[in-house]
Design brief:
Elements lengths: L11 H10 L6 E8 L5 E8 L6 E10 L4 E5 L6
Antiparallel strand pairs: 1-2, 2-3, 3-4
């Protein structure tokens, strides 16, 4: 009969999967564009590196069809 695994080794494979297999040294970025039924377009961007903060932005744009004027809105970040 084999001896049971040491307590410290019980979650080793799961920890290795989460800590080693998903760790990438390059920066990750994301950009999502979407258009609502009322014509408002949204553009969301995000960027993450292992060193430093995570950055992101959100932009909403509406174009008025009769006048062809557009309005853009970007939230301000208060640190």
């Amino acid at each position: 009969m084999a001896a049971p695994a040491a307590f410290g080794d019980i979650a080793k494979t799961v920890n290795d999967l989460l800590n080693k297999d998903f760790y990438h040294t390059s920066a990750a970025s994301l950009e999502v564009k979407s258009k609502a039924p009322n014509g408002v377009t949204f553009n969301v961007k995000g960027k993450s590196a292992h060193e430093g903060p995570i950055s992101g932005s959100l932009e909403a744009k509406y174009v008025d069809p009769p006048t062809d004027m557009d309005h853009r809105q970007r939230p301000r970040h208060q640190a």
